[in-house]
Structure formats: structure tokens, C-alpha cells
Amino acid sequence: MRAWMAMGAAMLVGVGVPGTDRVVPLPVYAAEQAADQAATVLAEMRKALGGAKLEQLKSVSLEGPFRREMGQRQMEGTIVMVLQGPDKMHRSEDIEFPGGNSVERITAISGATSWEDTQNRGGMGGGMQIMMRGPGGAEMNEEAREKMRTTRLTAEMQRWMFALLAAPAGELSYAGVAESPDGKADMLEIKDVRGQALRLFVDQRTHLPLMLSFQEVRPRMMIQGGPGGPGGRRGPGGPGGPGGAGAAPGPGGAAGGERQRPSEEEIRQRMASMPPPTPSAIQMSFGDYTAVDGVKFPKLVSISVDGKPAEEWTLEKIKVNPSLKADFFEKK
């Protein structure tokens, strides 16, 4: 898995990995030939994932513990993600803090509508407020925030649908063959809602997805409040991972609780003084596949950002076509 993650990082920045990994140049195919090759690889992948059983899948629920690196701290919690084709996703994270405190964050999208909600539990004072800013540190109005959120969540949903359910959004293309010490992989590519390339590596031996690689400029935000009340730790940051979860507040705060929340003007000035964000190279690797009701899913999802481990999920509960209420994807 590590060899493929290194390979994906190298390809995203346009270099090779001397002596170990390489990309086999793509033959000069006619457009029709390339399309046929992409369709063949996708068909083999769908067969390997479950074939007729995959065709019967309407929704899936994935649940388990996760571990996330955030600067010098490591966050742990439980994640539950529900996907329903063709355009619905509901993701809940319960992040744990010392002392029995926790934060639950929910993000959801249904077609062109999205929402998010954050709840503090266990006596955590101060509340958590994520302040998102546009170019130059300018405050975004509600319409702009909603548009950005919907686009971000649509892109995330498209990644999971492509990698886990072999359901690509938009035109599929064949990008060649990648080689590493772990073997060979066919590369399929689509463009997400933002026009960013998503490249899926499919094992030529098992025909199962190995890794999804892409680039992403993560939203710039500041967090007010959280554990410890007004003295809680805050600072500029991006989402906690390419899955789309927002940065979580840090446990505790300044000594004696003397640190106060920054004012609106201080936040604006701080964010305006930051250099423009640059794209990060993201690799999502999948392993330890298991069959659930005839459909194969990875029990292990590992995520790296710019070549460094950032997040790991262990999916312990997987349900195919779970019973969902009619308003499950609507904001409560």
C-alpha cells in the first residue's frame, strides 16, 4: 500500500520514483479505443466488487473508529458515512476529547442541497464556530458559504462513489498503467464537479480499487470557541482530512483561561495576511477487503496529504441497503 501511495504522490507532482516505480507511457489510442479500455477496466472492477450484487446496491452505511493527525495532536473518534446513489451522502463524526467531552459534526448533501451541524457534548463551554473566509480574508455571505459547501461535499461524494461503488460521475478516461513493487494497476480518471482530476488505481490482478489520488485546495477557516470555553484553542486551519470534515477545536486552552476570542477584525486581518493556499496532493488507499451481502468493501482506508500520513479509518460495521427514513438526508 505504501508503494502505491508514494507512486500516487509522485504522479500528482509530475515526477517519477527512480528505480522503484514508474508509469508505463499510454499508447496513442484513438478516442474510441481509449474509451473502450476504460469501460473494460470499469466492468472488471464492478464484477470484482460484486457484479449482480453491486447492481442491487442502492445505499451503504460504513462505520468505525478513525484516527487523524492535526499538527502535533492526534484526534480519535467514530465516523459513520452513508452513501445513496446517485447523489446523496450523510457523514457523522464523533470526536472524543479528554475528560469525556466530545464534538459531533454532521455534513450531508442531497442533490443540490447541503447542510452541516455541530454539537458539543459533555459540558464543553464556549461552543464551536467555524469562520470561513473568501479571498483576501473577506467574510463570505450565507449564499457564498452554501455554494462553497455544496460544491465541496459534492466533490467528496463523487470521490467515494467512484472509489467504493465504481460509480464515476461524468466522462471516464483511461490514463495508462502504473507499476510499483506491489504490482501493476490500471488508471482510470474522471473530473469532479470542480473540474479536478480524480485518478483511481485498479489492481490488474484482483481488479479491486487500490488508491484514489487527487489535488485539493482546502478551505481556509478559523475556529472560535470549543472545549474550554472562550479560552479554547483556536487558529487557522483546513479541514481535518480530505473526507471533508472541518478542523476540530483543540482540547484545553491557555493557562488560567486568560486567552480571549479574537475579534472579527483580528480574524479578518490574520486571514488576509496569510499567503494564498496551494493545492495539496491527497492519496486515499484501500485495503483489507471483505464481502458484505455479496459486495466487497475495504475495511481499512488510509489517507495521506502531501506524502504524510493524515488519517486512518477502520470500518467495523458495514451495512448494504440499510433501512433509512425518508428524511434522513434532510436537516433536522
Which features characterize this protein?
332 residues, 19 strands, 20% helix
What string gives the helices and strands in order? HEHHEEEEEEHEEEEEEEEHEEEE
Distance between the termini: 40 Å
Radius of gyration: 21 Å
Mean pLDDT: 79
Helicity range: 10-25%
User: Which range does the strand content fall in?
Assistant: 35-45%
The class by helix and strand makeup works out as alpha+beta
Q: Show unreliable segments.
A: 12-20, 124-129, 221-241, 243-258
- How large is the count of helical segments? 5
Overall body shape? globular
Regarding quaternary structure, how should these chains be classified? single chain
Major sheet characteristics: 14 strands, antiparallel
Question: How does this model look, in words?
Answer:
The chain has 332 residues and is an alpha+beta fold. The protein is 20% helix and 42% strand. It has 5 helices and 19 strands. It has helices at residues 2-12, 31-49, 52-55, 142-165, 264-273; strands at residues 22-24, 59-70, 73-84, 88-96, 102-110, 113-121, 128-132, 173-180, 183-191, 197-203, 209-216, 221-225, 232-233, 236-237, 250-253, 280-292, 295-305, 308-314, 317-320. The strands form 3 sheets. Strands 1, 2, 3, 4, 5, 6, 8, 9, 10, 11, 16, 17, 18 and 19 form a 14-stranded antiparallel beta sheet that branches. Strands 7-12-14 form a 3-stranded antiparallel beta sheet. Strands 13-15 form a two-stranded antiparallel ribbon. A hairpin with a 5-residue loop joins β9 (183-191) and β10 (197-203). It is globular. 36% of the residues are buried. Residues 12-20, 124-129, 221-241 and 243-258 have low confidence and may be disordered.
